[in-house]
Amino acid sequence: MSRLPPLTLYTRRGCHLCEQAEERLRLLDFAYTPVDVDTDPALRARYGDDVPVLAAGERVLLRGVLSRARLSELKLRLLREAGEGA
């Protein structure tokens, strides 16, 4: 069975877009690790006010509004990529 790569959701406390992103990721059964960019000066410098940012390693997959449609499309793309690498 194909598996998604480990995902990281870069967030910030009090960010309503980040809260929406987490809710939608859970609804679509994504496994991810949330990381608050404000806990690390390097992450804060890298992502600034661009949160939420969904990444696989160093590869930024999505940023900004993570709608259900965008996340569903991403999931299909990642599953296809995983299948091609198998």
Explain what you see.
- The protein is α+β, with helices and mostly antiparallel strands.
- Helix content is 43%, strand content 22%.
- It contains 3 helices and 4 strands, in the order βαβαββα.
- The protein has helices at 16-27, 41-47, 68-85; strands at residues 7-11, 32-36, 53-56, 59-63.
- A 4-stranded mixed sheet has the order 2-1-3-4, covered by helices on one side.
- It is globular.
- It starts with 6 loop residues before the first strand and ends with a helix.
- The model has no long low-confidence stretch (mean pLDDT 92).
Sum this structure up briefly.
By secondary structure, this protein is α+β, with helices and mostly antiparallel strands.
The description of the largest β-sheet is:
4 strands, mixed
Q: Estimate the mean pLDDT confidence.
A: 92
First-to-last CA distance: 9 Å
Task: Name the helix and strand elements from N-terminus to C-terminus, one letter apiece.
Answer: EHEHEEH
Beta-strand fraction estimate: 15-25%
- Helices, by number, come to 3
Determine the structural class based on helices, strands and strand pairing.
alpha+beta
Percent range for helical residues?
40-55%
Extended strand count: 4
As laid out across the biggest beta sheet, the strand order is 2-1-3-4
Low-confidence stretches: none
The Rg value, from CA coordinates, equals 13 Å
The shape is globular
List the helices and strands and how they pair.
Elements: E1 7-11, H1 16-27, E2 32-36, H2 41-47, E3 53-56, E4 59-63, H3 68-85
Parallel strand pairs: 1-2
Antiparallel strand pairs: 1-3, 3-4
